[in-house]
Each structure stands twice: as C-alpha cells, then as structure tokens.
Amino acid sequence: MSISSEASRRRAKPRNLTIMTKNYYIYILTNKAKTVLYIGVTNNLKRRIHEHQNPKENSTSFSSRYNTFHLVYYEHFFSILKAIQREKQLKRWSRIKKENLIATKNPEWNFLNDTI
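Predicted structure:
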C-alpha cells in the first residue's frame, strides 16, 4: 500500500473517540441572615453543599466560620476552565452587583439546597 493510500485510509476511517461531558458549577452561598456571600466552583454541587453543611471538626474555612451553607445561586458549565473563569469574575464584583445577579434567578433569595 502506498503512503498516500494509507493516509487516505486513516482519514476516512472514523475514530471511536468518546467525548465525555463533564458538569461544573459555580455557586453562591449565604448565611441564614443573608449578610455574607461565598462563591465557589465544583463538579458536584449536591456533594459540595453537603460538605459546606457538614464541615470537618475544628474547621477554620471561610464558609464554616461564617455559616455560609445556604445556596442562593448557581450556574452550570461543561468546561472547568469557563467555570473557573466565571468564579474569578464574580469574586471581583461588588456586593451590589452580586446581589443583582442573584435576584435575576432567585429574586426572593430562597434557599435552594433542597432543589438540587
């Protein structure tokens, strides 16, 4: 078989490439009084919320110190890079801009923990 026919055969043969779809989320948590906001990124929102609600003993994490485990907002992504980029963007925003974002999807600031 010649080199050109070998190359043609390789190009014509479909490859069995599995494209895996991954799910990533950025999320905003608040405390019961809704005075503190925490922004994070995860690939498993339900598990991550559970981890926030059940911190390790003697945890000194931000969410543990400020009791931020009430989900008020989240966005879904298929790319971890885009999710991280969005998380960084939101962390740079002012409090009022974050509040306005939350209000677009959750105007009453209901706790969404049980809806995911």
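Summary: The mean pLDDT is 87.
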